[in-house]
Design brief:
Helix content is about 50%, strand content about 15%. The chain is an alpha+beta fold. Strands 1, 2, 3 and 4 form a 4-stranded antiparallel sheet that branches.
Length: about 180
Amino acid sequence: MSKPAEAPAAGEKPKSKKLLLIIIALVVVLIGAGAAAFFLLKGHPEDEEEVGDAPAKTAKEAKPKPKKKDPAAPPTFMPLDAVVVNLADTSSARYAQVGITLQVEDEATANEIKKYMPAIRNGILLRISQRTADQLLSAEGKEQLANDILEFVRETTGMEVYRGYSPVEAVLFSSLIVQ
C-alpha cells in the first residue's frame, strides 16, 4: 500500500514545478514589458524624429539644437542699414537715427536672417517709433529697446531661445542720434 501513497506525492511535484516555472516566466515577461515601456516612454520630444505621415515642421516650428561653440571663435556681426524714425514725443517733432548690428552665431545664421529682413526692418521701425526721446536717451531705455528688438528678431526668424540657446545672440547699437 505504500506504492499508491507514493504515486500522488510524485504527481504533485511535477505540478508544483510546472506552476513555479509558469510564475517565473510570467514575472520575466512582465519585467521585460515594464522595462520596454519605460524606455519607449522616456524618450525626449526634441530627440525624436518625425516618422510616417506626421506633418513636417516649418522653419519657425523647428527648434534648433544647441551647438557646441568654439570659445576661441569670434562672433559674427551682421550690420543692418541705419533707420530714421519719428519718435512718440507729443511736445515736439523729434526723430532718431539708429544704427543696429546683430550678433549671431555664424555666417549661416546671418544668411538665414537676411531672408526675413523686410519684416525685421519694419518691426524695428515700429518699436523705435513707439519710444520717446527721453526713453532712448536713458541707459535703461536703450537696454529695453535692444531686448525688444532681439525678442522680435528671434520670433520672426523662428530662432527663439531653446534651452538657453539661440543663434541670434545680441542686438548692438552702432549709432544712436536723437534730434
